[in-house]
Amino acid sequence: MGTKRSAKSHAWNQRQNKDIYVREARARSLRSRSVFKLEQIDQKERLFRPGFNVLDLGAAPGGWSQYAASKVRDSGQVIALDRLEIDPIPGVKVILGDFLDSPVVAELNDILSKITLHLVISDMAPNLTGIKDVDQPAMGNLVTMSATFASQHLSEQGVFVAKFFEGAEAQNVKKTVARLFSEVRVRKPDASRPKSAENYIVARRPIKVGI
Ligand SMILES: C[S@@+](CC[C@H](N)C(=O)[O-])C[C@H]1O[C@@H](n2cnc3c(N)ncnc32)[C@H](O)[C@@H]1O
Questions:
Q1: Domain boundaries in the chain?
Q2: How far, in Å, is the centroid of ligand 1 from the Cα of 113?
Q3: Which residues line ligand 1 (CB under 6 A)?
Q4: What is the CATH number of domain 31-206?
Q5: Is the previous residue joined to 61 through a cis bond, with omega within 30 degrees of 0?
Q6: Predicted model pTM
Q7: Alpha-carbon Rg of the chain, whole angstroms?
């Protein structure tokens, strides 16, 4: 058992050392390799502008928030939420809590009621069990909850970007997001490992029902 686990972690270490994005993140003292996924989606989609207010869901350790803060500059604001602690980042307001907890959502509602929200980015993923029938619905639920929340809070031209998993739940996820937003695209940035089921949905202009 121990040998199997150490062989697995040896393989993981080897893959990390070979990975150009891991090396680049280390060289530039970035907090995560994930930041390159956001950067590549941004290069295609032009997500950020100086002065934008951004909500980063599932932000720890803070790579995406660092990138967002550098893009929105001093005139914008980044709010970063995670159930794990995030070391302070200049220009980023950190909220510690679970996005699926009502008091945390109430705190977010309160903050967002005072600003115009331009962009919601979510790299959230549930704790994976390795059992597809458990992981896929859990991921689907996170995307549905965050897309619904984003559509209620974003400005008219607002954009929602979220990680999801291709697989059994993907059609439902895409349908739900398409009901909430006027324009929906899927992106697989080069930095996302080809074998990984992850993909990113980019949705624009929330459909405000009853307005
Ligand atoms: C892949 S990491 C995010 C990496 C981040 N984008 C970066 O560049 O540093 C996913 C994060 O989602 C968080 N997460 C997952 N489910 C969550 C939830 N329900 N509420 C808050 N955070 C959650 C995890 O704690 C984890 O830190």
A1: 1-30, 31-206
A2: 23
A3: 31-32, 34-35, 58-64, 81-84, 98-100, 123-126
A4: 3.40.50.150
A5: yes
A6: 0.93
A7: 17
